[in-house]
Amino acid sequence: MKIDRIEIGEVAIPLRTPFKTASRTVDAVNNILIRIVTDSGTAGYGEAPPTALITGETKASIREAIMQYIAPSIIGMEIFDLDTIMQRLHASIVNNTSAKAAVDMAVYDLYAKTLGQPLYKVLGGAKRKIETAYTISDNPIDEMLRDSMQAVQDGFSILNVNVGKQRLKDVDSLLAIRKAVGPGIRIRVEANQGWSPQDAVRIISLLEDKGMQTELVEQPVRAHDLAGLKFVKQHVQTPIVADESIFSMKDALHIIQTQSADLINIKLMKTGGIHEALKICTVAETYGVDCMIGCMLESKISVSAAAHLAAAKNCITMVDLIGPSFYKIESYEGGPLFTGGTIKLGDANGIGISAFPKAHFKKLGVIK
Fold it and tell me: Where is each Mandelate racemase/muconate lactonizing enzyme C-terminal domain found (predicted)?
């Protein structure tokens, strides 16, 4: 069974409310989608969001990377020759990790479909249900309280709260949310590189002193500031997660060996897809380090792929896949079932997606 063609398009899905972090505000998901079709007609699906502030990619660069470099390198290859496909994919162009991730997950989707199994089973997993956090945007306190209470009402027991814009005032927002939702809700803090190392230690220490019971703090300092990240970890009790600081297995190994963070956040758009994410999981398992899996305002295709990886790997103990609950519409067919804070993996082959979305989709081209 050979790769016959790769179809590429784009989707625009409005969000229910704007997504706000310390670094950006987004009103809609505007992502590149691909479909890899074999000579037998079987199709696999992939997706890439343009997240220029993190990966350096735009819609135009993702489209060109796939059409001009990645797709031509793997057209005509046998789908079961997975290792060679991945070697060619990653050698076709440097960086461009989101473009690579879209093709990677579509290949894995196809691979699992040809084996007649859900992807999580092919990857060695047996979990059929995982629990995800709900992301709270960085807004004025009254809006953050409203969104937090609504998320709890909708069935989420874990909140991932975005802060980082106001430094010490972030403490007030977080304490207000804790008081509103009560002690039974797990709260994670996503600082989005918004603090200096000194401010991070001051803020996290204040939260600890005031009984915030923060489950973890994610990427408190700039991605390149590994010394600052380690400084924060050494001076607080709350677990520290490295997110934007880790793209590759090499990055993960360095963070772990230097003890610069307690946990690792895997995102397929940073790693370049499932193939490289599995290497990070192997490193984490070797050193006994837990991982989180997250996403970058992706729609159901790539969120589903990430959910399958989370269900397959025991080292992934924390999930932040906001999924379709964040969007005004959801026009995909198939995939895992998102109900409140629960993601249920089904029995469908591959990642479970069976077609491009029916609405808000535009076809861009075909590579043969």
Answer: 142-239
121-354 homologous superfamily: Enolase-like C-terminal domain (3.20.20.120)
Domain 3-116 has CATH 3.30.390.10: yes
Instruction: Confirm if 54 and 244 have CB atoms less than 8 A apart.
Output: yes
Q: Among candidates 143, 135, 115, 228, which has minimal Cα distance to 187?
A: 135
Whether the Cβ atoms of residue 181 and residue 149 lie closer than 8 Å to each other: yes
CB 203 within 8 A of CB 195: yes
Q: Where in the chain is the domain with CATH 3.30.390.10?
A: 3-116
Q: Alpha-carbon distance 1 to 111, whole Å?
A: 10
Residue ranges, CATH 3.20.20.120, the chain: 121-354
218 annotated as ligand-binding: yes
Model confidence pLDDT, tens digit, residues 238-261:
999 999 999 999 999 999 999 999
Q: What is the DSSP string of 114-167?
A: HHTSBHHHHTT----EEE--EEEPS--HHHHHHHHHHHHHTT--EEEEE--SST
Close Cβ partners of 304 (under 8 Å, ≥ 6 residues apart): 335, 336, 351, 352, 353
For the chain, helix (H) and strand (E) counts, in that order, are: 14, 17
Between 297 and 270, the higher pLDDT residue: 270
Residue 243, annotated ligand binder? yes
Model confidence over 333-352: pLDDT tens digits?
Answer: 899 999 989 999 999 999 99
pLDDT band at 23 (very low <50, low <70, confident <90, very high): low
pLDDT band, very low/low/confident/very high, at 58 (cuts 50, 70, 90): very high
